[in-house]
Design a protein that fits this description.
Length: 1093
């Protein structure tokens, strides 16, 4: 408030008085009523009398659209100045007793345009005569005239009442800018007269002849003018006559020049400024006060009165009521206050009101612009110059004081910050104006001034806040709490400066207030923190450390804001963390113990039930969710600390990871205790359900642990510690800690899953064994035999799938599948009865297929690559093999033989050449045996007696086809047979899978069994005429194919290595099968494979 009072004096008094005011003591204890009385007596009443005097002696009318009577004006000023009726009457009487002023019209002849050219040159030498004629003078002049005359002014009054401008030579657009003051007594009948004349001066004859020579047209004009005018008289150019009662109090206008005795359509125009003023105004009204000072006071009083009547809280934008505008115009006009002085008065008044009332800042900008304009147009009196300089300088200092207090005066709101911006613009505008630069010669940089004000204000603000948060006692916890509150205030202030105020200062004065404030706070806070930490050194305890943590977090947040600084330099808070090293272990211990307590409480209230069922089930319990929430603060602690030292940060990460792992292990232990306690009095179904929930809890926790490196940003820590921590040390520490916790979780999950899987495995084995108890079950009962097992699995697996998360369900499926395959394999291989083996294996194979579908679950269960293990492949092969019928086995046997024949290379036992074809026209298979080569010598003479036997196999496909044989070729190892055979067989028979021509070469012996030379197998589907044909096609639809010559090497079977024969051999009750086996065993017996190398 004292600053505002000082500035008010600054604006209203010269500099010397201002300095004297600063030196005197402020009488703050003075009675307010007495001060108001003195103010009214010494300030308001003199101005009130001036206004009464102005109304009593007003001339003309105002520019206001509405005309006000004297009574209306009296009523207005009485309300505006809060005068009582008695005071008004008393002051009115005093004004009536004063001397009236001298009424004057101040006329300024500015210029003229388009006037007549009266000289021979086509130009004129114009000048003006001005006077005011009262009614009597004008009437007397008219009566005294003998005849009409152009001149009025010259003849009407004496020369001392006539004013004349200077003569402007040879122009039709003269410019004078001359001002004259014309006195008059009564405005009612008075008129303003202006006559414009062309000066006619005597010139020499030679000069006139010279002008005539230069312009022939001038000769005619000269003759005409000489004929009309009297010698030596001036030429009349026109006049302007205005009744004073028709004039406003001030007017600036162009007037037409009118003729008097002759008529010209256009005589041009004259630009006049007319204003009613007072001379010899009574000086007792406001003794010692200039009209300018009174105008300032009246304006201020009118504005205050207007604002006090307004109901809106919006800033005043410069509007006044009509009475006020009228009175201000009359007063300024009567006292001849120039527009410059009026704008200066408005600036002074508005700048004073700005400090106490809601005044729109744009008004100040507008007045500064006006002052800047007038400064270049008009010279101010010395006293007003000094006042203007003091006002600008004073408002600048006042504005800087407001800037220093910007936090309190312009809070960070959408309504206040624009006001700060406008104030700064005003300060910028002041410094840019010529009056300020001329009247305040000392160099002043606004940028530096604003920066200094901000720093000063910031330090004062910090001191005040520090005092408000001063600890009440010397207790260390209270001291730390006080520091924490102070830093919190600073943190908020920095945020406001960064987010709100900085834009204002940068855009207005290019001052980065955030940087200025931040650097100042950095110094102030660093000092406070050092002093506080020095008091705590060696006295650390948990409660004190907890209080310091808040301080640390606030400083950390402030320190991070340095990224927004425009200018980087040394900051005293750069290594502030070092002062908190003693408190760090307490913070870690607090986080660990708090988290562990929360985990224990979470498990104690956990009923081990899934959190949510339905379309999107949540299969873990509440404690798992609580545990994750409990671990998050530890991870958040790492982010909050942001420890700068890389090596210490690594050790800090090791500690935090270790704490998380400890909490996880502790959770596993207390969760096991909890499930045991709840299972004691529960039924088996509820116990299994709770065990499923526990497994899900552990799996959920394992997933959370997997994300821990990302949450703690191990990658960023690795980058920071590359120069101080080796890769091996880093990876052998943190990942190993996490892996140990993961191993504990995995072990607990496997243990729980094994408990769940034991009963399932036992039941599966029971169902599989029950399928092997019956010795003979017809094939049609295969599905019925597997149905109990499948129903059981479907029920149990559905239950487990509903109660276990997918990861745990898959983990349970894998051992169940392996055990199921193992049980089936044991039952299949331990079947001691060969009788009914095929049907039994068919049943087991069907069961295996059902199990595979069940565990795969159309892609929702185990993947096929997990199901198709080596044990599965072995079991499936065994069951598939033993499930085939005898005919299928024989077919499979010949398919294998055909494949072996195609893959066989070399002619170890010789070869046979055939020419084969099939005629579809008569369904005949033609085989022509051409020769055999390189046969083995089977007789004692080193030769053989070979013949070839042709047989169509399998026999059940060709039951009516007899074997055929060639003639015997004696003593020949390369016999030439050249014999043809035809077999009557259908195309469908030939195209049956496994159908083949068996070519056997034998050595004929008379007394004993023929010796075996070798055999070859030719697939009928490869013979020309059979190949490419389709079943059901008419026999004659295709032409007979050309025969194909085939050379087939002879083979010998390997003895006792054929599993198919062994399986067929076990089927004793099938006579045809046993005959086939006997025949093949004979060939094996005769085979030299493995004997002859």
């Amino acid at each position: 408030m004292q600053m505002i009072l000082i500035y008010l004096v600054l604006l209203t008094e010269p500099s010397a008085k201002y300095i004297a005011f600063l030196c005197q003591d402020l009488k703050e204890d003075e009675n307010p009523e007495e001060k108001a009385r003195k103010h009214k007596e010494h300030e308001l009443k003199p101005m009130y009398k001036e206004l009464l005097y102005t109304i009593a002696h007003k001339m003309g009318y105002s520019s206001s659209t509405e005309v006000y009577t004297d009574d209306q004006l009296h009523q207005y000023i009485k309300e505006a100045f809060t005068m009582t009726e008695s005071e008004h009457s008393s002051l009115s009487e005093k004004v009536k007793s004063t001397e009236p002023p001298v009424y004057c019209l101040m006329a300024t002849v500015k210029e003229a345009k388009g006037i007549l050219g009266k000289d021979v040159t086509g130009f004129s030498d114009p000048y003006c005569l001005l006077t005011i004629l009262e009614d009597e003078e004008e009437s007397r002049t008219r009566r005294s005239r003998a005849k009409p005359c152009k001149s009025v002014v010259k003849d009407a009054v004496s020369d001392d009442k006539i004013c004349q401008t200077v003569i402007k030579k040879q122009t039709l657009n003269p410019i004078w800018n001359q001002t004259f003051i014309l006195e008059f007594e009564d405005i009612t009948g008075a008129s303003f007269h202006l006559e414009m004349w062309d000066k006619d001066e005597e010139v020499s004859l030679s000069q006139k002849l010279e002008d005539i020579k230069s312009n022939f047209n001038s000769l005619r004009r000269y003759c005409a003018l000489s004929a009309k005018k009297e010698k030596g008289t001036d030429d009349f150019l026109g006049n302007v006559v205005i009744k004073l009662k028709d004039l406003p109090c001030t007017e600036d206008n162009w007037y037409n020049l009118e003729p008097r005795t002759e008529t010209y359509p256009d005589r041009g125009q004259c630009h006049l400024n007319l204003q009613f003023i007072h001379k010899e105004r009574d000086g007792t009204l406001s003794a010692g006060r200039s009209a300018y000072i009174n105008y300032c006071g009246i304006l201020q009083q009118f504005v205050q009165a207007y604002i006090s009547k307004q109901k809106s809280s919006a800033p005043w934008k410069g509007a006044l009521c009509g009475e006020a505008e009228t009175l201000l115009e009359f007063y300024a006009t009567q006292n001849d206050l120039s527009p410059f002085l009026q704008d200066l008065a408005k600036w002074v008044a508005y700048s004073k009101l700005y400090q106490s009332l809601e005044v729109d800042s744009s008004l100040l900008l507008q007045q500064l612009t006006c002052i800047e304009y007038h400064w270049h147009q008009q010279e101010l009196p010395y006293q007003q110059k000094q006042e203007l300089g003091d006002s600008l300088h004073g408002f600048l200092q006042y504005g800087l004081c407001l800037v220093a207090k910007y936090r309190d005066i312009f809070p960070p709101t959408s309504s206040a910050t624009p006001k700060l911006h406008t104030l700064l613009r005003i300060l910028v505008q002041i410094c840019k104006t010529q009056p300020f630069q001329k009247l305040n010669p000392a160099q002043f940089e606004l940028h530096d001034g604003v920066s200094d004000a901000i720093q000063t204000g910031t330090e004062e603000w910090f001191t005040i806040k520090k005092g408000l948060h001063q600890p009440m006692t010397k207790d260390l916890s209270e001291i730390v709490s006080a520091l924490s509150r102070l830093i919190g205030e600073v943190q908020d202030d920095i945020k406001h400066n960064k987010d709100m105020w900085n834009r204002v200062f940068v855009s207005a004065v290019q001052v980065d207030v955030f940087t200025v404030v931040y650097q100042k706070f950095d110094t102030l806070l660093a000092k406070e923190v050092r002093e506080t930490l020095s008091l705590i050194e060696g006295q650390m305890e948990q409660a004190l450390a907890n209080s310091l943590f808040t301080v640390y977090l606030s400083l950390q947040a402030i320190h991070k804001d340095k990224a927004f600084l425009q200018k980087r330099g040394f900051l005293e808070l750069t290594n502030f963390q070092e002062g908190f090293r003693e408190a760090l272990p307490y913070w870690l211990n607090q986080a660990f113990s708090t988290t562990q307590d929360r985990v224990e409480r979470a498990v104690q209230v956990d009923q081990l039930q899934p959190l949510q069922s339905g379309a999107v089930p949540i299969k873990h319990s509440s404690s798992a969710v609580d545990l994750v929430a409990c671990i998050q603060p530890i991870c958040h602690l790492w982010e909050q600390l942001s420890w700068p030292d890389p090596e210490e940060a690594f050790m800090l990460m090791v500690k935090l990871t270790e704490d998380v792992c400890k909490i996880v292990v502790t959770y596993c232990q207390i969760l096991k205790k909890r499930v045991r306690m709840l299972s004691e009095n529960s039924d088996p179904g509820s116990a299994i359900n709770m065990l499923c929930v526990v497994v899900n809890d552990l799996e959920h926790l394992r997933t959370v642990l997997t994300q821990l490196p990302t949450q703690l940003n191990w990658t960023g820590l690795r980058d920071r510690t590359q120069n101080v921590i080796g890769d091996s040390q880093f990876h052998n520490t943190l990942p190993s800690q996490l892996q140990q916790a993961q191993d504990v979780l995995g072990k607990e999950i496997r243990s729980a899953l094994n408990t769940l899987g034991k009963k399932l495995n036992t039941d599966i084995e029971t169902h599989v064994r029950s399928m092997a108890t019956r010795r003979r079950i017809p094939s049609k009962s295969t599905e019925d035999a597997a149905a109990p097992l499948m129903r059981y699995l479907e029920q149990e697996l559905k239950y487990m799938n509903e109660n276990l998360v997918q990861e745990n369900f898959n983990s349970l499926l894998i051992p169940l599948w392996e055990n199921s395959v193992k049980s089936l394999y044991q039952v299949a291989t331990n079947h001691s009865h060969q009788e009914g083996l095929m049907v039994f294996c068919q049943r087991l194979l069907y069961t295996l297929q059902c199990l595979e579908q069940c565990f795969h679950a159309e892609g929702n269960g185990l993947p096929l690559n997990s199901l198709h293990s080596e044990e599965y492949k072995t079991l499936k092969g065994h069951l598939t093999h033993n499930s085939l019928s005898s005919q299928q086995l024989v077919e499979k046997f010949f398919k294998r033989k055909i494949r072996e024949q195609k893959e066989y290379s070399g002619e170890k036992y010789g070869a046979v050449t055939l020419l084969v074809s099939y005629r579809r026209s008569d369904q005949r298979l033609r085989v022509e045996v051409l020769n055999a080569v390189n046969l083995l010598p089977m007789d004692s003479n080193g030769l053989s007696d070979p013949f070839v036997q042709l047989c169509l196999e399998p026999s059940y496909i060709f039951p009516e086809v007899e074997p055929r044989s060639t003639q015997i070729k004696s003593c020949d190892l390369n016999p030439l047979f050249d014999e043809a055979f035809e077999f009557l067989v259908s195309l469908d028979q030939c195209q049956t899978p496994g159908a083949c021509l068996v070519v056997t070469v034998l050595d004929h012996d008379t007394l004993r069994t023929d010796d075996f030379e070798g055999e070859a197998f030719l697939a009928l589907e490869d013979i020309p005429g059979v190949a490419g044909g389709k079943r059901g096609v008419e026999l004659n639809s295709l032409a007979d194919a050309a025969p194909d010559q085939i050379r087939s090497p002879l083979m010998h079977p390997k003895p006792n290595e054929d599993a198919i024969l062994r399986l067929l051999e076990s089927r004793k009750g099938e006579r045809e099968t046993q005959a086939f086996v006997k025949k093949r065993r004979l060939r094996e017996k005769q085979s030299q494979e493995g004997i002859q190398e």
